[in-house]
Design a protein that fits this description.
The structure holds two protein chains of two kinds.
Chain A: H1 10-23, H2 27-33, E1 38-43, E2 46-51, H3 54-75, E3 81-86, H4 92-97, H5 137-148, E4 157-160, H6 167-181, E5 187-191, H7 192-204, E6 220-224, H8 233-248, E7 252-257, H9 269-276, E8 279-282, H10 288-301, H11 308-317, H12 322-339, H13 345-353, H14 364-374, H15 379-383, H16 389-406, H17 410-416, H18 422-438, H19 440-454
Parallel strand pairs in A: 2-3, 4-7, 4-8, 5-6, 6-7
Antiparallel strand pairs in A: 1-2
Chain B: H1 7-15, H2 17-23, E1 52-56, H3 57-68, E2 82-87, E3 91-96, E4 100-106, E5 108-112, E6 114-119, H4 120-128, E7 134-140, E8 143-148, E9 151-155, E10 175-178, H5 179-189, E11 204-210, E12 213-219, E13 223-230, E14 238-243, H6 244-256, E15 261-266, E16 270-274, E17 278-283, E18 302-307, H7 308-321, E19 327-333, E20 338-345, E21 349-354, E22 358-361, E23 364-369, H8 370-375, E24 384-389, E25 396-400, E26 406-410
Antiparallel strand pairs in B: 1-5, 1-7, 2-3, 2-6, 3-4, 4-17, 7-8, 8-9, 10-15, 11-12, 11-14, 12-13, 13-26, 15-16, 16-17, 18-22, 18-24, 19-20, 19-23, 20-21, 24-25, 25-26
Helix pairs in contact in B: 3-4, 5-6
Classes of the chains: A alpha/beta, B alpha+beta.
Chain lengths: 455, 415
């Protein structure tokens, strides 16, 4: 996993340094003091070493500092200083202890209780828990720059990408990091929907004129999913004013959305202009290598372990967003808990089969051909204008399949199947959906067809 | 010609950093009688350095027993399974397992200073078997000689140059709080913490000292215990998450300290509790305890007030009949004034018991893990308890009648 411009990852650097350090200490010493240590982070010439407790920290600082610095410098001469921080990850023994059977007792839903009411930030979303890879390193670098020089480097910062790629995590990480670095400054995270609701409530209560004032106090404003502010006239105007005031005071503003600002429908031009005025960073689909890293990070935080080859398999075959990846991992973890032991390749294959959108290896023509064949009608009749019952049904099923299995757009389907109107396609899909509910033999037919297509 | 070091020469030696590394912790230093004194380590010839002190057996035994509990169990470094005895102005007995450490001061008469490390278990066994009151400790040929009237034991010493520095907590000024109250707080909730550290904040006891008092909370996500001790608050505030293991050890230490007040100090990685003779330090979790106030139900669909002992007895009986899974079903039928419990297992049989109760609200049948219900009862002082049910699948709140200091929440079973 590459970390920006370093030639070695921090982990590799530490492992190599440990080899040298081991030579300079007794075996007992090495095993006692250097166990569970790692490099927490690096900035410039300073390496931050994570140690499990203060006692260890004091000992390393007192007795082994020179040795550690020497070992690191011999691997990378740009390293100037070493600092030590107490930071502890779950020990392997503790991780093993966690593999208990699924509990029959209900538990408190503590997840949402960690959110800080003052700023709505979830303390779990930090840079430490954010996995960086080639696909998001630009957005990540921009986010880091914003923390370093808020209001000055990239203002506003606009992060966009399809759902489930880590936008919220990244922009909240900026907030959390900022909070940590500047205890007296104020951060606010809101979704655009929340902003809209609050504004409408203020209007109803007759407080609309003072609404924007409450945002003046914040040094950083983070607004998530701005696409939902589409087609709202007054709310957009309000956002426009809030933005201007904050921006004029060099307060940092961060936005996220599912699309590039230029492509956001239903948004005023002047607002789009403001969104585009700073830095725009995309988070595209994660590459396989990054998926592997994300999977590893997620299972490690739960104290689980899955063999590397299975991780690779999951990374390659579960397309879609990071949330889906998490969903699959949860299923695997659940399954392994129920079984009481590790999961096999076969288990994983079975679990992801139902959750994977198949590769677009099959063409529309193929689909038409196979379904036509299945219903024993001439392939070309599907494309023709004919409304004979025996052709209509397969045609509708083809439309349904193309939509459900391959997410082809309605106009596209209409066009490919003989220049039909997209409303016809919509009607066909709805019809089949309805019929499935009452007709089990149809459902079975569709299942057969699915296997035929994906074979 | 060798002469013994005068105390002045000895203290000069130990403060001279040029020779410190070589002579530190060495028991044998030879000092040539030339003037001016040599400046390099190699010029010094070594003379024997004796530690010699006498003390009351009971006191040093207690110190060693306390320290022994903190020693590392399967350590790669032998000195971590030892106690370090350091006699300078007073005798301090120290032990650590790298996560926690303890230092006990023992009153004694010191004739000669010195430091030595010996196996904790060997020393504690030795001291235990001594009948007499007074004992003397000496270093002899680098080993520890324990003598009292009629007995003489020589314990092999372990090199102690790698015994960790425990400066812990001494730099920061702590806040003074009543020992008993802190102990009570920890004991009232620690059983509710999770034994696993996967989610460190759940595997810890949350301790907060604020203006309005001490508060201790623990939860493993299945049940939650909160104990508030008002009136012991301080202006300076401390908020820490103490890993369960260390919280239990702290409780043990607090029970044995005789001081009425202790000093608590903490930073993001470590906390320290000190009495006049004992100091206990441990690492703390750098995390956030969930803001659990929201999950405490404010309204209840059914409530019952029962005698604590009746409830305990009912659970005890249910335990016998519930088999391995330890499940019990509670049933409230307010209109018929019934509050009962049922339990069954295919091996043992089944039981159904009802107890006198003031019940109100809607009918409810709900299943719980017996242990989770019974655990809290020892933390409740009142004779009567209230059970507030928020409905199927929602938490049960248990409190002592007219006692707001302790609140216990428990989630029912899934089905």
């Amino acid at each position: 996993m590459r970390m920006t411009t370093l030639s070695m990852s921090n982990r590799e650097l530490w492992q190599n340094a440990l080899v040298q350090i081991e030579l300079g200490t007794s075996q007992a010493s090495f095993r006692t003091w250097f166990r569970n240590t790692d490099i927490a982070s690096r900035d410039g010439g300073t390496v931050h070493v994570a140690v499990p407790s203060k006692i260890v920290k004091e000992w390393l600082m007192e007795k082994h500092h020179k040795l550690i610095l020497k070992a690191l410098r011999s691997l990378d001469s740009s390293i100037r200083t070493v600092e030590y921080a107490v930071h502890r990850t779950a020990l392997p023994a503790e991780k093993r202890a966690q593999r208990q059977p699924v509990s029959e007792n209900a538990s408190f839903d503590l997840g949402s209780l960690y959110i800080d009411k003052r700023d709505n930030l979830n303390p779990r979303y930090t840079f430490e828990t954010f996995v960086v890879g080639p696909f998001n390193e630009i957005a990540h670098a921009a986010a880091r720059a914003v923390v370093e020089r808020p209001g000055l480097s990239y203002n506003p910062l606009f992060v966009y990408g399809a759902t489930g790629r880590g936008k919220t995590h990244l922009i909240q990480a900026v907030g959390n990091q900022f909070k940590k670095a500047h205890a007296n400054k104020k951060v606010l995270y809101v979704t655009s929907e929340r902003f809209t609701t609050d504004f409408l409530n203020a209007v109803r209560a007759g407080r609309s004129s003072g609404f924007k004032d409450q945002y003046q106090q914040y040094d950083v404003l983070i607004m998530d999913d701005v696409q939902f502010i589409a087609n709202t006239e007054k709310t957009q105007e309000e956002l426009f004013h809030v933005f201007n005031r904050l921006h004029d005071d060099n307060k940092q503003i961060i936005f996220s959305s599912d699309k590039h600002p230029a492509l956001l429908a239903g948004l005023e031009e002047r607002l789009k202009g403001r969104f585009s005025a700073g830095m725009i960073a995309e988070i595209p689909e994660p590459d396989v290598e990054s998926r592997v890293a994300i999977i590893k990070a997620k299972i490690e935080s739960h104290g689980f372990s899955i063999p590397d080859d299975i991780i690779q398999y999951i990374a390659e075959n579960v397309r879609g967003n990071i949330r889906e990846l998490e969903g699959v991992l949860n299923m695997i973890v659940c399954k392994s808990q129920l079984k009481g032991k590790g999961v096999t390749h076969a288990d994983v294959r079975a679990l992801i089969k139902h959750n994977v959108k198949p590769n677009k290896g099959v063409s529309v023509d193929e689909v038409v051909r196979r379904i036509a064949q299945y219903y024993e009608v001439a392939e070309k009749s599907i494309y023709e204008k004919t409304r004979k019952k025996e052709v209509v049904k397969p045609r509708q099923i083809i439309m349904y399949m193309l939509r459900e299995e391959f997410s082809v757009s309605y106009p596209s389907i209409g066009e490919k199947l003989g220049g039909r109107d997209h409303t016809t396609v919509i009607h066909s899909c709805e019809k089949i959906k309805e019929e499935i509910k009452s007709n089990t033999s149809l459902e079975q037919e569709l299942e057969h067809i699915r296997t035929l297509i994906h074979a | 010609m060798f002469s013994p070091l005068t105390p002045q020469q000895l203290s000069t030696l130990s403060t001279d950093s040029r020779i410190e590394n070589t002579l530190l912790n060495k028991d044998i230093i030879y000092f040539p009688t030339i003037s001016p004194p040599p400046t390099t380590a190699t010029e010094y010839v070594y003379i024997k350095r004796y530690m010699r002190l006498s003390t009351v057996k009971e006191k040093i035994l207690n110190a060693v027993l306390l320290a022994e509990r903190i020693t590392g169990k399967k350590e790669s470094l032998p000195v971590l399974s030892c106690v370090l005895l350091e006699a300078s102005r007073e005798l301090s007995v120290r032990a650590t397992n790298l996560e926690a450490g303890v230092e006990v001061t023992v009153p004694c008469e010191i004739e000669d200073k010195g430091t030595i490390a010996v196996s904790a278990t060997v020393l504690s066994q030795t001291l235990r078997s001594i009948a007499a009151d007074k004992i003397t400790l000496k270093t002899e040929e680098g080993n520890l000689l324990v003598e009292s009237r009629g007995t003489k034991t020589l314990i092999k010493a372990v090199p102690h140059d790698e015994f960790p520095i425990l400066t812990a907590g001494k730099e920061k000024k702590g806040i003074t709080i009543p020992r008993e109250r802190l102990l009570h707080g920890i004991q009232s909730v620690s059983y509710a913490a999770s034994p696993s550290m996967i989610r460190p904040e759940l595997g810890s006891v949350y301790v907060s000292i604020r203006r309005d008092g001490i508060m201790c909370v623990a939860t493993d996500s299945f049940r939650l215990a909160e104990k508030k001790i008002p009136g012991a608050g301080r202006k300076d505030e401390i908020e820490i998450l103490v890993p369960l293991r260390h919280a239990l050890e702290l409780g043990h230490v607090l029970e044995r300290i005789k001081d009425e007040e202790i000093e608590l100090s903490a930073d993001e990685s470590q906390m320290s509790v000190a009495g006049s003779e004992v100091r206990y330090t441990s690492r703390v979790v750098d995390g956030t305890f969930p803001d659990y106030k929201e999950i405490i139900p404010k309204t209840f669909s059914a409530e019952a007030v029962v005698l604590k002992n009746d409830f305990a007895e009912m659970l005890r009986k249910a335990r016998v009949f519930s088999g391995n899974d330890q499940h019990v079903g509670l049933h409230l039928y307010p209109k018929k004034k019934i509050f009962s419990a049922t339990a069954r297992s295919s091996d043992v049989g089944e039981m159904s018991d009802s107890i006198d109760a003031a019940v109100s609200g809607e009918d409810l049948d709900i299943n719980f893990h017996i242990g989770y219900l019974a655990d809290c009862l020892s933390s409740i002082e009142s004779d009567s308890i209230t059970l507030g049910f928020a409905g199927s699948g929602k938490p049960l709140v248990i409190r002592g009648v007219s006692d707001q200091s302790f609140t216990y929440l428990v989630m029912p079973l899934n089905r």
